[in-house]
Amino acid sequence: MRIGIAGIAGRMGRLLAEEVQAAGAILSGGTLRPGSRAEPPAGLPIQPDAAALFAASDIVIDFTHAEEAVPHAELAARSATPLVLGSSGLSAAQERAVAEAAQLVPVVHAANFAPGVNLVLALAEKLAAALPAEAYDAEIVEMHHRQKVDAPSGTALAMGRAVAAGRGTTLEAAGMESGRDGHTGARRTGSIGFAALRGGQVVGEHTLLFAAATEHIAITHRSFDRRSYAVGAVRAAQWIIGRRPGLYSMMDVLGMR
């Protein structure tokens, strides 16, 4: 299996390169982000552009940036090369474009590729189904390193969507309460709250809290090493080969649905 990595000189790109080789796959090469000053890992093949990377690969892993998600998904569709997409912060329009490309080629897109996070998402949906929104307010608190540019994080939003799904609705319909400041009025029943913290070099911390008048239930996941994301992404790359076109998630990769 020839696996290509978009943005191979970045922090995630380097980890992905290590995990691809550890899995016994062939590293077909990588691309560098335009304007990046990062040096690629020594001895690894660098492709001149994304089109060349897709042409040289059986599958491509992309953890670069939301702005690259759509062009890479379109390249995947045109070249019939499966894509593992880990970029977060996609807009609704970008998500629709990725879904359209997935009609022609298999795509695994996940907000977080760590197996533990996906187990928490599954548990969040089950808890939300059992704890009525009228009695249990759902709040999500996340913290990341100071360089992260999107908030709430993709994983936090995935938690919110899991809660909404458990309650038989969508995050948009339930309503998001984020960035509260000043006299905001009372909390809306059934809405899902978000708080984003940024500082230092925290890899990722997410807490889902169900708060009722008589009890609180909290589930926390902490990532201490980005390697867990790389391990999960390579696992997804091995899983997706031979699949039919479609938009898959890490839940599918883990056999949880």
TrEMBL record:
<dbReference type="InterPro" id="IPR022663">
    <property type="entry name" value="DapB_C"/>
</dbReference>
<keyword id="KW-0028">Amino-acid biosynthesis</keyword>
<feature type="domain" description="Dihydrodipicolinate reductase C-terminal">
    <location>
        <begin position="116"/>
        <end position="254"/>
    </location>
</feature>
<comment type="subunit">
    <text>Homotetramer.</text>
</comment>
<feature type="binding site">
    <location>
        <position position="145"/>
    </location>
    <ligand>
        <name>(S)-2,3,4,5-tetrahydrodipicolinate</name>
    </ligand>
</feature>
<dbReference type="Pfam" id="PF05173">
    <property type="entry name" value="DapB_C"/>
</dbReference>
<comment type="similarity">
    <text>Belongs to the DapB family.</text>
</comment>
<keyword id="KW-0220">Diaminopimelate biosynthesis</keyword>
<feature type="binding site">
    <location>
        <begin position="86"/>
        <end position="88"/>
    </location>
    <ligand>
        <name>NAD(+)</name>
    </ligand>
</feature>
<feature type="binding site">
    <location>
        <position position="33"/>
    </location>
    <ligand>
        <name>NADP(+)</name>
    </ligand>
</feature>
<feature type="domain" description="Dihydrodipicolinate reductase N-terminal">
    <location>
        <begin position="1"/>
        <end position="113"/>
    </location>
</feature>
<comment type="function">
    <text>Catalyzes the conversion of 4-hydroxy-tetrahydrodipicolinate (HTPA) to tetrahydrodipicolinate.</text>
</comment>
<comment type="pathway">
    <text>Amino-acid biosynthesis; L-lysine biosynthesis via DAP pathway; (S)-tetrahydrodipicolinate from L-aspartate: step 4/4.</text>
</comment>
<feature type="binding site">
    <location>
        <begin position="154"/>
        <end position="155"/>
    </location>
    <ligand>
        <name>(S)-2,3,4,5-tetrahydrodipicolinate</name>
    </ligand>
</feature>
<keyword id="KW-0520">NAD</keyword>
<keyword id="KW-0457">Lysine biosynthesis</keyword>
<dbReference type="InterPro" id="IPR023940">
    <property type="entry name" value="DHDPR_bac"/>
</dbReference>
<protein>
    <recommendedName>
        <fullName>4-hydroxy-tetrahydrodipicolinate reductase</fullName>
        <ecNumber>1.17.1.8</ecNumber>
    </recommendedName>
</protein>
<dbReference type="Pfam" id="PF01113">
    <property type="entry name" value="DapB_N"/>
</dbReference>
<dbReference type="GO" id="GO:0008839">
    <property type="term" value="F:4-hydroxy-tetrahydrodipicolinate reductase"/>
</dbReference>
<feature type="active site" description="Proton donor/acceptor">
    <location>
        <position position="144"/>
    </location>
</feature>
<feature type="active site" description="Proton donor">
    <location>
        <position position="148"/>
    </location>
</feature>
<dbReference type="InterPro" id="IPR022664">
    <property type="entry name" value="DapB_N_CS"/>
</dbReference>
<dbReference type="InterPro" id="IPR000846">
    <property type="entry name" value="DapB_N"/>
</dbReference>
<keyword id="KW-0963">Cytoplasm</keyword>
<keyword id="KW-0521">NADP</keyword>
<feature type="binding site">
    <location>
        <begin position="7"/>
        <end position="12"/>
    </location>
    <ligand>
        <name>NAD(+)</name>
    </ligand>
</feature>
<keyword id="KW-0560">Oxidoreductase</keyword>
<feature type="binding site">
    <location>
        <begin position="110"/>
        <end position="113"/>
    </location>
    <ligand>
        <name>NAD(+)</name>
    </ligand>
</feature>
